[in-house]
Write a structure and sequence with these properties.
Elements: E1 7-12, H1 16-26, E2 33-38, H2 41-49, E3 55-59, H3 71-77, E4 82-87, H4 92-100, E5 105-108, H5 113-132, H6 141-151, E6 155-161, E7 164-171, E8 174-179, H7 185-195, E9 200-203, H8 206-209, H9 220-236, H10 274-285, E10 290-296, E11 302-307, H11 314-334, E12 343-347, E13 350-356, E14 362-367, H12 373-389
Parallel strand pairs: 1-2, 1-3, 3-4, 4-5
Antiparallel strand pairs: 6-7, 6-9, 7-8, 10-11, 10-14, 12-13, 13-14
Helix pairs in contact: 6-9, 7-9, 10-12
Length: 391
């Protein structure tokens, strides 16, 4: 057990000499830092199991994965930790993406170690202040926006609910930017009001906030009023609970239907039965090299899945999809290239192809490394509208 007053730092870099140099320098001051090291993304997650860092120093180019790709999953585990990105060859795109996703600094090697140590001390203090501030949870999105509006605050905020993550920006209390991973602007806000519960939230750096360009022009007082009406309507129209002892002669009255969509949307598509959804996933399984086909919601929970091997962990696929694709949607919009239509995650012994199904969830197919990805892309794009209609 280390000194409880020492700032806890996780160093993640595949350059063993760089890690050793930084670690030795930080530990020159007795009792100031407790330093744990890792040399890959996988090793970093193993270290996080038993170590709660105040600051994480994360190299961009790791041997198994980009440090930017694991920014959000790390924040899910330790939302109070401040993350500093480190690279030997930076690009402006990498810098902007990392800061948008929650990194507080983006530094280039070689480091000026004395200034770096002061930075880690400063961030460690802020991390512990954030942890003690009580801002982690106990408030839903409607309460958060109302609080910021009444206090006339200017800040950018990360809000997490389960595996979902949203980014919001306020200017003197006005909500000017919202992105919940699947929607943006006022639609994202109403989506969160109806479907998200109490979550965690924390402010992000001013440098990050300046990158979030306005995507909502609806006055916040109007948003709050409409959101309150939507929530009241959802509660009022929820399915009625069955009576304890219904009178035998009372005529049966159908319970009012719960709303199935966030916003009004005309559709003449006949919804398919669960059997129809399984059949559609079965068609995706017919492709050469297919190992599994699954539909999950945006929290990562499995709606329906098919696999050639019953041993495949569908819940793990769901967790990977919700974390990766939700972040991809936010990045795409903030880079002004739009949301992701199809994402391919390449692993050593397989590839995972994922496509968003609007606000309903995510469709994914796990295939072998030798599979024809072009053929699977075509099959997914062809069947996705039918699968979305079944949800």
């Amino acid at each position: 057990m280390g000194d409880p007053e020492a700032f806890r730092v996780l160093l993640v870099d595949d350059d063993v000499d760089v890690v050793a140099c930084i670690k030795d320098f930080l530990e020159e001051v007795p009792g100031a830092f407790e330093v744990i090291t890792a040399h890959s993304g996988d090793e970093a997650f193993l270290r996080l199991v038993g170590f709660k860092p105040d600051v994480i120093v994360l190299d961009v180019d790791l041997p198994d994965i980009s440090g930017i790709e694991i920014l959000n999953p790390i924040q899910d585990i330790h939302p109070n930790a401040h993350i500093v990105m480190l690279t030997g060859c930076a690009t402006s795109e990498q810098r902007e993406t990392a800061l948008r996703q929650g990194a507080v600094r983006f530094l280039e090697k070689p480091l000026e170690l004395l200034g770096f140590r002061r930075l880690l001390q400063e961030l460690g203090t802020k991390s512990r202040t954030r942890e003690a501030s009580g801002l982690e949870g106990g408030m839903d999105i409607l309460d958060l926006v109302q609080m910021m509006f009444l206090c006339q605050k200017s800040a950018a905020v990360r809000f997490t609910f389960g595996r979902r993550r949203a980014t919001l920006r306020f200017e003197r209390g006005e909500l000017v930017y919202v992105d919940d991973g699947s929607l943006t602007g006022e639609k994202a806000f109403y989506n969160m009001v109806l479907l998200w519960g109490e979550g965690r939230f924390y402010t992000v750096s001013e440098e990050t906030a300046q990158l979030l360009e306005r995507n909502n022009w609806t006055p916040t007082d109007c948003l709050l009023m409409e959101a309150a009406l939507l929530r009241d309507h959802a509660v009022t129209n929820a399915p009625a609970a069955p009576a304890m002892e219904p009178a035998p002669s009372a005529p049966a009255e159908p319970a009012p239907e719960a709303p199935t969509q966030i916003l009004p949307e005309a559709s003449n598509t006949q919804k398919l039965s669960p059997r129809g959804l399984r059949d559609l996933l079965g068609q995706l399984m017919d492709g050469e090299g297919s190992q599994a086909a699954v539909v999950v919601d945006w929290e990562g929970f499995v709606i329906e899945g098919r696999a050639h091997s019953g041993l495949l962990p569908m819940e793990t696929i769901g967790a990977v999809l919700s974390a990766s694709l939700g972040s991809t949607q936010i990045i795409g919009r903030e880079l002004r290239v739009g949301g992701g239509n199809l994402v391919v995650l390449e692993f050593e012994r397989g590839n995972l192809l994922a496509r968003p199904l609007g606000t309903h969830g995510i469709l994914a197919v796990l295939v072998s490394p030798e599979a024809n990805l072009g053929q699977h892309r075509c099959n997914i794009m062809k069947l996705a509208p039918e699968i979305e209609a079944a949800l």
